[in-house]
Amino acid sequence: MAIDFKKKLASRTIAPKTDPIELYETLDRKSVAGPLRPAQKAVLSEWYTMRRSERDLIIKLHTGEGKTLVGLLLLQSLLNSKEGPCLYICPNKYLVKQVCSEADKFGIPFCTFEENTEIPNDFLSGSKILITHVQKIFNGRSIFGIGNNYQNVAAVLLDDSHACIDTIKSAFTISIDKATNLETYSKFLTLFSDDMVEQGEGSWLDIQTGDYNTFMAVPYWAWDTKRTEVLKILSSAQTDRRSPIYYAWPLIRDQIKNYCCYISGTKIEIAPYNINIHAFGSFSCAAHRILMSATTQDDSFFVKGLDFSSAAMKNPLRNKNQRWSGEKMLIIPSLVKESCDHNLIVTEFSKMHLSKFGMVALVPSMKNCKQYQSLDAIVTTSGNIIGELDKLKKGCFSKIVVINNRYDGIDLPDESCRILIMDSLPYFDSLSDRYEEQACPNSELINKRIAQKIEQGIGRGVRGEKDYCAILIIGSELVRFMRSISTNKFFSQQTRKQIDIGIEIADMAKEECNEGENPVKAITSLIKQMLDRDEGWKEYYTSEMNTIEEESAASPVYDRLLKERQAEQLFIDGEYGKAASSMQKLINELDIDETEQGWYLQQLARYTYPTSVAKAIEIQKSAFKKNSQLLKPITGIDYTKISYIHQDRLNNVRAYIRKFSDYRELSLSVDSILDNLSFGIEATKFESALKDVGELLGYISQRPDKEIRKGPDNLWCGSNNHYLLFECKSEVVETRKEITKQEAGQMNNHCAWFEDQYGCGIVVDRFMIIPTKVLSYEGDFTHLVKIIRRRNLKKLKEQIKDFVKELKIFALDEISDATLQELLALHHLNVEEFADQYSEDYYHQTK
Q1: Least confident interval from 197-211, 365-379, 563-577, 638-652
Q2: Is the pLDDT of residue 682 over 70?
């Protein structure tokens, strides 16, 4: 028999607590759950007393300050106020388990989706918080409904919201893999073949042969003309639940004109210009929309992606009493000793056997995993990553664990990761993001997103206020991005200070290095000091970090993203004239370089196309002239021949090096360029690096294949109109025995193009950069062609490096002509000796 204690209260009613701090004290917490932390109290108090009525809210807390509990208490407070159903959304299933575990620990009632996938009644009745993952809510066949047929939700909270937004965008995106959907893939290639040949015959041939790295955008005019055929292809392929089209089809079928298409050698991607978050009424119409965000992250992308209010963007809820959290020893090995390059660090650290703590490497692609694999490291996949991370958290340590292209949603606290290797610059996964990055490499928006990925990565190993981790930064492009004044500014103040500390300790370690000593010893010595909890290091780090000033929440890119979203929405609504006017106004306002101007002009041309094809073509021409990485207009672009008439090579060299504020910036840039001038590097990066090398050496440098979609990969013009023509095959595997008949034919076509443009009597050296010098029996060259293999490419890079080192003692804007000429000759960098110094004859295979 149970006693009814409530009867004793007679007429009194127990009202559930709505103040989250008071509410916490009433919870049936487990004994391990102590009192609220000061940071949690500060945020909860401000929310309840001042911010509770705000519809859109961004909460920013340092890692380890207890964001999960804060979010759960806010939702429980709203439930206790009888506001209606509350939803807690995680970026993936793995984190759902973690949040459920936290809710259980603190005694907060919650529910999840069971096997039958029905929406739980406890959620619908407003009695329990529903904890789920973002894919469950945001898909075209969501159980919560789409369009006007949606499940009403009072409050939606997105945890780790930067990771969530990428998943939300993928819900609107169709990715058709060639390996698993060959029939659908082939239909698209056939449909757009003629259009793509016009955009670039060489690139289209590479795509047809299955090249992973080569991709092209389908012109918006071809997409518009053939959208009915596109819909027929997609409609016939979307009926299978296993199809990648199935879940996105309801979102895309009536919005196809607002999508763009990209084709690579391995997949087709159909993505929206801007995600239509209003398709998900459960989120867009919720009375409370709460985003949880780390303090290092820039939230401006919520404007365009989630249609968040300006007030929420400019005034996030944060703990103002703490400006930083956790201890990160950032180490840049190449600054300690130049020989501590990427290969040496990967080799030495992969050999280590661990017993007391875990070591993790974050890499941007499977390609970067190969060196680790060859050294017997543990390389994770989608199938084993959760198991390997659980091993680390349980204290099972053996070798370095390598994680591919996962910069968020992974927690590696305490001993699970005391050494984190941040290996190489992250890059974008989706073809739409890669297209924007390729077209606008210097864009503030692109660099912000790259910085955000890096900050997400270096935050994986420090998950609490008292947590500590050594973070090794390797890969010249990554080092350059983090150190260069042109890109360092995109990081949070906390990260910038940690980079400054890293540069300082590298200088200190350099002084302690002994000649002839293993260069890695200085790196491991630094790490040991941190692991041994050296008091001097701890005091130094704390005193430096305490100099950080409070950071402004308002992002400088906010207004631009807001205006982009508004212009795109006008276009979606069929207000084409207003969309074009809005975009033109934005172009007039922006202070950006020509490549970005071209990017926005292409958007303007797309907005103009429905009302005036002729005007759109003229605008697209202007866009292409400013940025040759964009779509080639329907009517062709005239080729501009290069010549050395009225050019001064030494002035060109001087103009190139003056682009940099000091020698350090120049050196960082050249290191990054030369790293990309290597076999195994994707073609676009290699060819861009070769163009930069030509400009550094004072030549007129062009990429005709990219700039007009005809001709060789690279063309240099030196003094006395002496030309160097390059065909680049950087992605050819080094074990390849022969130059194929097709490759020889491609070279012959480019030689004929040169003669057609410049005439037959011009001095030109023709080079194929490829790992083999053997021409197949079936192949033939119509002109004299020289081969640049690994040995000579390495020799060229060494001479360029040595030339740049010579500049260290000079002020960059005060180097005399005589000095420059002497240094260029000393390092054999004159056009006349290029062929003799850096190339060799090919060998024609006989039967």
Answers
A1: 638-652
A2: yes
Nearest to 329 by CA among 474, 480, 504: 504
Q: What is the mean pLDDT of the chain?
A: 89
Express each pLDDT in 18-71 by its tens digit.
899 999 888 888 776 778 888 889 999 999 999 999 999 999 887 767 888 999
Helix (H, G, I), strand (E, B) or coil at 437: helix
CB atoms within 10 A of CB 548: 15
What is the CA 472 to chain-centroid distance, rounded?
Answer: 19
Nearest to 725 by CA among 766, 688, 680: 766
Structure tokens at 135: 């894919």
Mean pLDDT of 105-121: 88
Nearest-10 Cα torsion for 305, 308, 310, 314: -90
Rounded to 10°, the helix 227-237/182-199 angle is: 160
pTM of the model: 0.85
* Alpha-helical segments (H) within 535-682: 535-545, 558-572, 576-589, 594-608, 613-626, 649-657, 663-676
> Is-contact 630 599, C-beta < 8 A?
yes
Q: What angle do CA 262, 267, 269 make, to 5 degrees?
A: 40
Q: At what angle do helices 649-657 and 683-696 cross, to 10 degrees?
A: 120
> CA torsion, points 239, 241, 243, 244, in degrees to nearest 10?
110
Q: Can you read off the two tokens belonging to residue 671?
A: 């290191």
Task: Please report which helix (H) or strand (E) contains residue 270, including its range.
Answer: strand 267-272
Q: Are 447 and 490 in contact (CB under 8 A)?
A: yes
- Other beta carbons within 10 angstroms of residue 443's beta carbon come to 18
Label residue 818 exposed, middle or buried (CB < 10 Å: 0-12, 13-18, 19+): exposed
Q: Return all residues near 611 (Cβ < 8 A) that are at least 6 apart.
A: 576, 577, 580
Chain centroid offset of residue 148 CA: 34
Q: pLDDT tier at 552 (50, 70, 90 boundaries)?
A: low
How far apart are alpha carbons 162 and 173 in whole angstroms? 17
| Reported confidence tier of residue 553, pLDDT bands at 50, 70, 90 | low
**% of the chain exceeding 70 in pLDDT:** 95
Q: Are residues 716 and 701 in contact, defined by beta-carbon separation less than 8 angstroms?
A: yes
DSSP per residue over 51-94, as a string? ITT-SEEEEEE-TTS-HHHHHHHHHHHHHHTT---EEEEESSHH
CB burial of 320-339 (b: ≥16 within 10 Å; e: otherwise) equals: eeebbbbbbbbbbbbbbbee
Which H helix or E strand runs over 750?
Answer: helix 741-758
The angle, 0 to 180 degrees and rounded to 10, between the axes of the packed helices 519-531 and 493-512 is 120
Tokens of 642: 């290069």
**695 near 656, Cβ under 8 Å?**
yes
Other Cβ atoms closer than 10 A to 731: 16
The C-alpha atoms of residue 362 and residue 717 are separated, in whole angstroms, by: 41
CA 49, CA 67: separation in Å to the nearest integer?
A: 19
Residue with tokens 């010893």: 521
Q: What is the CA radius of gyration of the chain?
A: 29
495/605 Cα distance (integer angstroms): 39
As a residue count, the chain comes to 847
Q: What's the DSSP call for residue 647? A: -
Distances (CA, A) of 651 to 350, 657, 695, 815: 46, 10, 11, 10
Both structure tokens of 113:
């989706």
For residue 621 the two structure tokens come to: 């021409």
The model's pLDDT over 163-220, given as tens digits with 9 standing for 90+, comes to 788 888 889 999 999 999 999 999 999 999 999 998 988 889 889 988 878 899 999 9
How do strand 215-217 and strand 259-264 relate by DSSP bridges? antiparallel
Contact of 599 with 439, CB cutoff 8 Å: yes
CA angle 213, 726, 802 (to 5 degrees): 95
Token pair 């491609």 is found at 746
